[in-house]
UniProtKB/TrEMBL annotation, chain A:
Domain (ABC transmembrane type-1): residue spans on this chain: 68-261
Superkingdom assignment: Bacteria
Subcellular localization(s) per the UniProt record: Cell membrane
Official protein name in the record: Trehalose transport system permease protein SugB
Keyword Transmembrane in annotation: yes
Gene coding for it: sugB_1
Gene Ontology CC entries for this record: plasma membrane
Annotated transmembrane regions: 9-30, 68-91, 103-124, 136-155, 184-205, 243-261
Record key words, sorted: Cell membrane, Membrane, Transmembrane, Transmembrane helix, Transport
Cited PROSITE patterns: ABC_TM1
Taxonomic path: Bacteria, Pseudomonadati, Pseudomonadota, Alphaproteobacteria, Rhodobacterales
Pfam families xrefs: BPD_transp_1 (PF00528)
InterPro entries linked: BP-dep_ABC_trans_perm, MetI-like, MetI-like_sf
Predominant subcellular localization, coarse grouping: membrane
GO BP term (any one): transmembrane transport
TrEMBL record, chain B:
Domain called ABC transmembrane type-1: residue spans: 90-304
Residue ranges of the TM segments: 94-115, 127-147, 178-202, 223-245, 281-305
GO cellular component terms attached to this protein's record: plasma membrane
Keyword entries, A-Z: Cell membrane, Membrane, Transmembrane, Transmembrane helix, Transport
Entry similarity comment: Belongs to the binding-protein-dependent transport system permease family.
Cellular localization per UniProt: Cell membrane
Protein name: Trehalose transport system permease protein SugA
Organism whose genome encodes this protein: Roseinatronobacter ekhonensis
Pfam families for this protein: BPD_transp_1
Gene3D superfamilies: MetI-like
Alphabetical list of PANTHER family matching this protein: BLR7065 PROTEIN, INTEGRAL MEMBRANE SUGAR TRANSPORT PROTEIN
Recorded topology in the membrane: Multi-pass membrane protein
From TrEMBL, chain C:
EC number, as in UniProt: 3.6.3.19
InterPro entries named in the record: AAA+_ATPase, ABC_transporter-like_ATP-bd, ABC_transporter-like_CS, ABC_transpr_MalK-like, ABC_transpr_MalK/UgpC-like, Mo/tungstate-bd_C_term_dom, NA-bd_OB-fold, P-loop_NTPase
Record domain ABC transporter: where: 4-235
Gene Ontology cellular-component terms listed: ATP-binding cassette (ABC) transporter complex, substrate-binding subunit-containing; maltose transport complex
Protein name: Maltose/maltodextrin import ATP-binding protein MalK
Organism for this UniProt entry: Roseinatronobacter ekhonensis
Keyword Hydrolase: yes
KW Cytoplasm (keyword) present: no
Keywords from the UniProt entry: ATP-binding, Hydrolase, Nucleotide-binding, Transport
Any GO MF annotation of the entry: ABC-type maltose transporter activity
Amino acid sequence: MKPPLWQSIGFYILVGVIVLQALFPFYYAILTSLEDGQALFEVNYLPRALNLANYQAMLSGGVFGKQILNSVFVATVVVILSLFLAVTAAYALSRIRFRGRGLLLLTVLSVSMFPQIAVLSGLFEVIRYFGLFNSLWSLVFSYMIFTLPFTVWVLTTFMRNLPIEIEEAAIMDGASSFTIIRRVFLPLMWPAMVTTGLLAFIHAWNEFLFALTFLSTDSQRTVPVAIALISGRSEFEIPWGNIMAASVIVTLPLVALVLVFQRKIVSGLTAGAVKG
Amino acid sequence: MSKTVQKSRLSRSRTRSAWLFLAPMLLTLAIVAAWPLGRTIWFSFTDASLDLMGEARFVGFRNYLEYVAWGDGEGQYYGLLADARWWRSVWNTILFAVVSVSFETVFGLIIALVLNQQFRGRGLVRAAVLIPWAIPTIVSAKMWAWMLHDQFGIINDMLQTIGLIAEPIAWTASPDTAMVAVLMVDIWKTTPFMALLILAGLQMVPGDIYEAAKLDGVPPWRVFRKITLPLIMPAVLVAVVFRALDALRVFDIVYVLTPNTDATRTMSVFARENLFDYDKFAYGSAASTLLFLVIALITITFIMATRMDLEGKRS
Amino acid sequence: MATVELKNVSKSYGTVEVLRDINLELEQGEFVVFVGPSGCGKSTLLRMIAGLEDITGGELRIDGQPMNDVLPAKRGIAMVFQSYALYPHMTVFENMAFGLEQARLNKAEIRERVEKAAKMLQIEAFLDRKPKQLSGGQRQRVAIGRAITCDPRVFLFDEPLSNLDAALRVDTRLEIASLGKRLPDTTMVYVTHDQVEAMTLADRIVVLNGGIVEQVGTPMELYERPASQFVAGFIGSPRMNFLNGTVAAAHGAETYGIRPEHISLSPDAGDWRGRVILTERLGSDTFVHVEVDGVGPVNVRIEGRSEVHANDEVHLTPDPASVHLFDAKGRPIPG
């Protein structure tokens, strides 16, 4: 039984509206980034120019390139570190029975509910104490507060669903706990690790508050802060073209990740919430 | 005679390695979360300033509320709880959370229902919907700031073209519309997250229920109201709570899109301004502490209400 | 000398006792089957021997050595799991070699042992494949092969056939039986809920129920002299008929038990008269369900085909030598 025509048309119009609203702002940012000078101040719906001047301005200045590298460094190290810490912890939390396990998992999970602002002043002190102020390591370190609880939670759920007999077979084979993680679980966990790693990367790449607070010089900043702080000499001279070019540059890798790893991202986003 | 061993060597060694494996993670979380939180709360009871954190002295509840008597029975309340700007930011935060989460739930539900249908190009539509979520908050704020620009913005142009407004609106600068602008951006950016969580709920509804309803000739709207909605309610509820907790902490969008205006200042923005811009470190810490308390309370209530199965008990 | 000795072994989770006072001695080279309904504690008992579960009371000895506090891998045992539990990311060779690697054997010796076991089980052709490229039966053999390479004193099987389809189950059962013959010095302990598997494989059967041992004996001992009404009902298929009331009372018992194959059926004369309710024809046998006047429902097994049909009136005669009598507590009354 096929639905009536008007229903199909209505449905596809709805789909069209959803796609349009989702993509239009990004499309418009690209369009703006390709315009220069006076063209910028005329409202266009379709591309008129293909002018790369804004991109040249952003990338030739030097500091923005450095800032992109900062972001790549921070996000990559955050992913590696949080996965390493979380895999071992998830093994303990999912596979070993010990007293207080439930409470511990609850505590770890509750950390993800912490408002970042609530730890900001205390964290600021800790970072100064370790001499990490204005160092990228301050971000690597502080981003653990949101990547770790999430990663631990998802990996714990995933590991719990791996067949218990495989681990018991490894115990019978005489493997130590560390060998079980390294030789048996790690190779089975890569789907979950890709998912959580991606989400941790995106989260770290996008973070703003800590990056704004713990870094003080231009050459140390990460891209979100850099973009937020691009300004002209006055309110009327804000270089919108440059801002849009920078925005497109930092967003493109994420869009690529979303297109390639769509399924993994969706499963990761919903793993924590729905199965909880 | 029988020898009794309560815990075998295997159990003992596993318990030992459990704690060994947990230690680095727990230590990290202690340093980045537990300790800083404790210090924030401590600072809120002191006269700490940005440069003299170490020499902070305990001042009791002065940052929260203090009655200063002027003599002759006259006097005035000072402190966070007597600060009109604070209460304004509390109101802004609540307004933001309620409105944004409501719209996101409705739009998210619609998108989820669409994505739950079988149609050509569904994968691409789903990817497209995900894009606003993946764009950094700061970038979306900037993109929208440009689109909402009072003189050159495309939104004003659109609205004027279809005749909805006569004069351009200064969306982000005018106090009347600043909150609307913030809400627009947030709803645009976060609806995908909501949609995905609800979609996950929808996909757990067994298909044969719909088959049965179809055979019984139940009209689609009633199927949705009587079957779908009750079944996905738990998933929607979880998504709403997650989003609400997130919305109560909102900082980035407001800070970038509408800086320095009473009309949109939220609790997080208020706290950070005091901590780092106004050199009222202790006062800002008190604001942070209150925000933490509100969120903790909601979280605890939620966990109690749903009695989450954290042990993952197997049958 | 016994290889495996259990002395007053018990297991409890908190205050819940799942196994109570288990005393067993398993001889070297013996094939012992633990059988019982689900939840009887048979798998727990096996896992305690393996070392995967703590022993909360009593003592386990293997070759005379106390084992309660010895790590699983150091007990000289190997285990075949219900789901095979092969490492999915490793090849068959790597699966079989993993335990030997953990034991720090040198490469040449590992290869030699794996190849020997592979040859024995005829899985040499699959050594480079991953488990998901194998059929259920092949996986089962790899799981057994992995256990053999460790050269165990005791071989444990935890319901190894329950994931196989019916046809394969019979083949694999025969293979496990012949494995037992080929490894005459290795003690085999096999857990199942299927009494047919137990009867066909075991030298001795241990029947467990509700956390205690109901009876230990050879298959024929259990069949002919069940030590309790539970064992009588559990062993043998179709199930023994249990009759209460006047038939039992006439023999001074609470329950009168007679196996379906120990009743003869005749159209015109016999001890009991009744009406056929249902017949089940299996070709080799026919099961006739009869409602006997004043006695109750009785199941009769007839070899080959039978021309009896529903609603026919029939006469039954139980073989007096094969009657089992039980008292109110299910204990046998010597007859």
